[in-house]
Amino acid sequence: MRAKLIQHEITRILSDNYALPCGKGCREIIDFLKEVFNADIKLIVPRENGSIMHAEVVIEGGTIMFANANDDFPPFPAGMFIHSPNAITFYDKALKNAATSIQEPAQREYGLSAGFEDAWGNVWWVTVPENK
């Protein structure tokens, strides 16, 4: 399913459900997503050893699914693209939470856009879309 924007308010991230094995830092990533994107925790399923077998967070209507990596599913960085009227606020909050700027906010043909890399190597592009 492609990303879609409804009334310029609801965000979808790549698809409604995107999986991201995240090494040992899943709980820290959840904290980052809550702080930067005001994410809501939808579900956390722990393994017996305390690691996360499955987690879901919601950012402005879009769900990201992820889990702690293991021998069968090694960690890998992801690329995310978010359309939101709050995009520049997300960018500013990310930089205050150990993210590194890739692209400062700038007007593009598709909207006001910025990019950053989080502490786990994931790349986030955030854009305030053009009203057309």
TrEMBL record:
InterPro entries found in the cross-reference section: Glyas_Bleomycin-R_OHBP_Dase
Protein name (record): VOC family protein
Protein source organism: Pedobacter agri
Lineage of origin: Bacteria, Pseudomonadati, Bacteroidota, Sphingobacteriia, Sphingobacteriales
